[in-house]
Amino acid sequence: MKKLLLILLCLPFIGFGQGDKLIFSSGDTIIGKVIEVGVNDITYQHKDETTNNVTKKRELAKVIYSSGRIETFQGLSILESKIAKEENDKLYLKQKEERKKIRMQKKEDRIDYFRELNESTKNYFVIRTAISMADIRDGNDWPTFKEDNALGLSVALDAIFSITNRIDLDASIRFSQKNIKTGINNFMFSNFHSDIYANLNKINFIDISPKLKYRIINRMHISFGPYIGYAVNLKKKSISIENPNYNTGGDGFVYPTSENDTYVHSDFSYTDFGLTHKINRFDYGFNIGIDYSLTKKILLSSEYSLGLSNLYSITVGESPFYTGYLDESDYSQKTSVFYLTIGYILN
């Protein structure tokens, strides 16, 4: 119809001198000769014909005479309305097609979204091995020993359950090595020893930790959650530091020690110099970590574990010698562990 409109606009120029042009309300155009314009009718002949034809004025839009003069009739408004309707119909069809494309695109986007969601909601297991750095958070009355920080190994099995496309529940059970110090009898008699002794205990824990994991980007998650641990066994060795308070003028009495260069199996509770030293087997705290999927199967992660449980307690025996000595002393022992982990994804 746009072409028709252009033709109608250009006909006065391209058709001049070739005969009269009759344009009907239907959009049809003929070239001929107008014989008579009556009150209601128009009589015309087709080009190279002598037969008279009659049409109603309301059926004619305009006549462009060979002289260049243009005469319009009642059918012009009908033709213009028809052209406008066809243009509106074309615009409507175009918009309808665009809406259809948008709906199809949205449908494809939903399909892709649920496909990704379905892939992300797959539950899977991860086997992790880690190198750990265990640190002791001492009470105020502990001296500093260079052996406080200790490297260890960790093995874990994680079960990942997807909650949403960004949030997972990570339920893990982990074997980890932590360490604490015990034995303060030498501190009380430090004037009689050139070295201060303590026992460094390397403890094997089984930790259970439910964590929430949040996906930051496609391959990276952050995690946070509590843990509870139970100590299954321990080994200890004697450690020492040079005693700055050593008094060479002491009575020279030598108190026995259990100094060892290597770790030996030990109990969680023992009595020494009238004091009962007890290592609490239950630990609890919080874990926070970040992991990155190096490949579809390999997972790298780092995690920090903050222990909140005091794992060391001292009980005074029957001897009145220690009465009041430990009342205000702080020999608490809490653990902090940093893990550097590589995991293999099972699915």
Give a structural overview.
This protein is an alpha+beta fold. The protein is built from 3 helices and 18 strands. The protein folds into 2 domains: 2-81, Roll (SH3 type barrels); 122-346, Porin, CATH 2.40.160.20. The protein has helices spanning 2-14, 75-120, 185-188; strands at 20-24, 29-37, 41-46, 53-56, 60-64, 70-72, 124-138, 150-162, 167-182, 195-217, 220-242, 264-265, 269-272, 275-279, 282-293, 298-307, 312-316, 333-346. The radius of gyration is 48 Å and the shape is rod-shaped.
Strand order of the largest sheet: 7-8-9-10-11-15-16-18
CATH 2nd-level architecture of the largest domain: Beta Barrel
Task: Tell me the total number of β-strands.
Answer: 18
The whole-number mean of residue pLDDT values reads: 81
Q: Tell me the fraction of residues in β-strands, as a range.
A: over 45%
- Secondary-structure element sequence? HEEEEEEHEEEHEEEEEEEEE
CATH class of the largest domain: Mainly Beta
The coarse silhouette is rod-shaped
Count of spatially separate domains: 2
Our measurement of the CA-to-CA distance between the termini, rounded to an integer number of angstroms, reads 62 Å
Q: In the CATH scheme, what's the topology name of the largest domain? A: Porin
Name the helicity range. Answer: 10-25%
